[in-house]
């Protein structure tokens, strides 16, 4: 299997290095994997003038999977929109047609006190957020900023086709079948036509999944319910923008955004694997970032793209073990546990493997 490795910006190189070490350890135990680095995001802008250079595109297209850290940072925030690092990320997602973003929010028992919510609210939490990733207001045309009647206006287009809704719905229903057989579809149908269509298509699709219970929730209530009683959810399926926001919210149920991995898949399980968090410019270069979301993303890569459940579980078990041993980066640290940096956390995972 060929994996294109995109460290990206900010803490990206630090956290990806630890995931790569884990994969190298598995390789020395027989995992067939080749890793090739390339540039995406701000580092690509600096080196090649664009956030998703052709060389990266070629490598990513040829690869069986892509491992990514994060992109972006304040030094690139003033650039014209097409050159922004985030455009590189959106570009690769669209180019590889990675429409299905899986963001599992699982609370490891050892982190029950790291969450800002009461332990009894989050203990045993296991939610899968299925976020549509290549449509919605993120990609809708037309869009822009222009002067109308003497003042600037900005506008975007929120749009979904029924085919786009159906294919992400299928992913959610299929995933629910392997879990607790419940799908909650999140929309804003009381206001937005695009999400009325979303709800209609979900209801039509549910006829093919009589064994899965479908419910609907408006996104504002869903945001509230996620902190009030998150364990009511099994699979949540939603559009690109609502999914972006709800998955960051869900990450804090698990203790830290540094714990939330993600897989972005196409129709054939070719995938891009990245933590759900960003480049964390505030802690970049300090060696303190939590690498576990990235290591757990590598585990998702083993599961979905390598079809190697045993290797995926081996990595996940190692992560559970280091948490049980008390290793904590700053974001999940609490009294009585052992505070470590990014590299030491990686060392601990390697030892546990
Ligand atoms: P962020 O996720 O980078 O950071 C939010 C907060 O969480 C910060 O306090 C940060 O220190 C902390 N944090 C994030 N990851 C952590 C980790 N692994 N360990 C410990 N703490 C961690 O979000 P932001 O500050 O809004 O965005 C910063 C930049 O990242 C922006 O340029 C944004 O566009 C970009 N971004 C990129 C991605 C991506 O590449 N997938 C995702 C989100 C944001
Ligand atoms: C994420 C990020 C991206 C998104 C940005 C950086 C384009 O927030 O992966 O969640 O909004 O999808
Ligand atoms: Mn996000």
TrEMBL record:
Pathway: Amino-acid biosynthesis; L-leucine biosynthesis; L-leucine from 3-methyl-2-oxobutanoate: step 3/4
Annotated catalysed reactions: (2R,3S)-3-isopropylmalate + NAD(+) = 4-methyl-2-oxopentanoate + CO2 + NADH
EC code(s) of this entry: 1.1.1.85
GO molecular function: 3-isopropylmalate dehydrogenase activity; magnesium ion binding; NAD binding
Gene Ontology terms: cellular component: cytosol
EC category name: oxidoreductase
List of residues binding Mg(2+): 220, 244, 248
Annotated site (Important for catalysis): 138, 188
Subcellular location: Cytoplasm
Matches recorded under HAMAP family: LeuB_type1 (MF_01033)
Function field: Catalyzes the oxidation of 3-carboxy-2-hydroxy-4-methylpentanoate (3-isopropylmalate) to 3-carboxy-4-methyl-2-oxopentanoate. The product decarboxylates to 4-methyl-2 oxopentanoate.
Name listed for the protein in its UniProt record: 3-isopropylmalate dehydrogenase
UniProt source species: Niveibacterium umoris
